[in-house]
Amino acid sequence: MPQIRRLPEALVNRIAAGEVVERPAAALKELVENAVDAGARRIAIKLVDGGLGMIEVTDDGCGMAPAEMELALERHATSKLPDDAIEQVVTLGFRGEALPSIASVARLMMQSRPHGADQGWQRVVDHGVVAQEGPAALPPGTRIRVTHLFAKVPARRKFLRTPRSEYAACKDVVQRLAMARPDIGYTLEHGDRRALVVHPDETLATRVATIVARDLADNGVVIDLQRPTHSGPMMLTGIAGLPTYNRGIADHQYLFVNGRPVKDRLLTGAVRGAYSDMLARDRHAVLALFLTIPPEEVDVNVHPAKTEVRFRDGQAVRGFIVSGLRQALDTGDRRSAQAPDGAAMGRWIQEGAAAEPEPVPALPSIFSGHDWNSPPNDRPGHVAAPVAQWRGVSADALAQPMGRAEVAEHLPGAALEYPLGIARGQVAETYIVAEAADGLVLVDQHAAHERLVLERLRAAGAQDMITRSQALLLPDVVELEETACDRLEEAAGKLAELGLVIERFGPDAMLVRAVPQALARADTAKLLGDIDDDLVKHGEALLLGEKLDLVMATMACHGSVRAGRVLSVAEMNALLREMERTPRSGQCNHGRPTWVKLSMEDVERLFGRH
After folding, report:
1. In this predicted structure, what is the pLDDT of residue 305?
2. How confident is the model over 241-258, as pLDDT tens digits?
């Protein structure tokens, strides 16, 4: 039997580096977190070749004395745990592994000067070996420079991506940390280009909008909620984008727990659940959520890089986020992503500024000396022969216009009282044209009415009707892996609330006794398999709820006004007024806007009046 031996310190550090420093972005994250924990007010970051060439982090924090610098480069040495109560940790770092791990796989230069000290000190470690030490000139604070990352570990370096990809990962790390602390100023330079500058003491909304997307402030709602727990308050703050302001991938979802950027399945599942009936499955919300929870209610020590957390009461946290998000979105529920599509607007504007068209032959026989008070059949639009000769357009095409207008219905009060304005007509038997006090409103009548019908179904208790269980004459036995049965058994109570009644039937099978009425014809084996996949991915059975939401959305779609239906002005105005009263009427059930507005300034600009 091989003899047991103690591993050398250098090899232990390299093994730890494999857990903590798998790429430049991971090393950068550890260095910036150290600067934050040091009380820095400004942090300057410089990168070369996406961090492959150099990573430098400079801060104006508390600094370190020479003896502290030496200790900081030893494993499991930290100033962030004053006692053994690791569950009470409030700093970003606490393991004491980052600096020695980085120094074991790179050349690390550390310079630091405490506030009040006459001079600074420098210590250089080259792949685990101290190479240089002595005085250094720098202002109070700390500067750490990392070069030659994985130079002596070629097996690790060949797995790194291109400088561009590594830079993208580094930038994402800096953005997340900068959002978490709007009181700290950050600068990020890549090569000779300054990629990010944010100033200290910004508001959370300003910092998030600056980093995520500047138009998020106009297309999002501010979240500020609090709920008491037995160990202290639980708070949720941040900005959530309107459902109509979405993306095809979830790269603009930023989640934080106690100021720590995390990527947590429970939190992403909660976000998905909150937006479930407002977004299509292939679209994703844009948001930044900051959850503050008593330290003893969350375990941050479940991953070496501290990017994952575990909650003591995950269901309570998920419920708080879902209800908080929905409550916040209700405050902006009638809003839509207001900026009209830029490409469409560009084509509209260019049409008026295009090259001069071909000369159009004069039509004196139609327009000259015509009596405009004559009956409709004598009006120019109904003179078939000459019109048919005009640039090859048929008379039938002009006799049946895409748009129509009626005498506007007189409504009490001014248009100012109606946010969506007063109906003036209908275009293509699909879009309602309304005049508001501050612009022109276009409404997709089918999308809008679909949302209204869905909300009516909810108000009428349709959810209860849909989730009502239908007992199976003969219970279905579904064979699954034992671990899948364990997960489903644990979720059985929640599934029963949604109308799916299951119970354990031996070590590797589940018995299905009842299903929701709306899914009476579903394949129970496939249904349970899909729900188990959902439990594995999100830690919560979201799929069944989404299937039932889809049933209700389908009912709403079939019961709504279809595109192509002619509406009277009275019907149009009734639709507009109900939209103004109905929650979440700014988007349809798939996350598309139900209405858009063109301001009067934009209208005037189209005609060169502004």
Report:
1. 61
2. 988 888 888 888 999 999
- Measured distance CA(596)–CA(374) in Å, rounded: 38
SS3 for 580-594 is HHCCCCCECCCCCEC
How far, in whole angstroms, is CA 101 from its chain's centroid? 33
For residue 225, what are the β-bridge partners? 236
Q: From CA 284, how far away is CA 57, in angstroms rounded?
A: 33
Residues 559 and 517 in one domain: yes
Residue 585 CA to residue 335 CA, distance in Å, equals 8
SS3 call for 380: helix
Distance CA 384, CA 400 (A): 12
DSSP characters for 32-76?
HHHHHHTT-SEEEEEEEGGGTSEEEEEE-S----HHHHHHHTSTT
Identify the weakest region by mean pLDDT among 39-53, 217-231, 425-439, 449-463.
449-463
Strand order in the sheet with 403-405: 403-405, 422-427, 431-436, 439-444, 595-599
The answer to whether residue 370 sits within a structural domain is no
Q: Which pTM value belongs to this model?
A: 0.67
Q: Give me the phi and psi of 324, to 5 degrees please.
A: -65, -45
Mean pLDDT across the stretch 471-483? 91
* CA-closest candidate to residue 147, choices 101, 103, 96, 97: 103
Report phi then psi at 229, rounded to 5. Answer: -130, 170
Task: Give the span between the Cα atoms of 215 and 86, in whole angstroms.
Answer: 40
Return the biggest CA–CA distance within the chain: 113
- Tokens representing residue 308 in the block: 């994952």
For residue 450, the domain's CATH number is: 3.30.1540.20
Give residue 458's identity as a one-letter amino acid code. Answer: R
The first and second tokens of residue 196, run together, are: 């990010």
> In the structure, what pLDDT confidence band is assigned to residue 464 with cuts at 50, 70 and 90?
low
Listing DSSP states for 534-548 in one string gives: HHHHHSS-HHHHHHH
What confidence tens digit (pLDDT) does each residue in 106-122 have? 999 999 999 999 999 99
Residue count of the chain, please give it: 610
Q: Are residues 135 and 234 in the same domain?
A: no
DSSP 21: -
Residues 6+ apart with CB under 8 A from 190: 47, 48, 50, 167, 171
pLDDT band for 201, please (50, 70, 90 cuts): very high
DSSP code of 112? E
Is the domain of 313 the same as that of 458?
Answer: no
Which of 558, 566, 553 has its CA nearest to residue 592?
Answer: 553
Confidence (pLDDT) at 193 = 93
- Show the domain range for 152: 9-198
Q: Do the bridges between strand 501-504 and strand 509-516 make them parallel or antiparallel, or are there none, so unpaired? A: antiparallel
Same-domain check for residues 67 and 175: yes
Tokens of 327: 């409550």
The packing angle between helices 445-459 and 569-581, to 10°, is 50
Q: Taking a C-beta distance cutoff of 8 angstroms, is the pair 445, 439 a contact?
A: no
| Helix residue ranges, H only, 202-288 | 204-211, 265-274
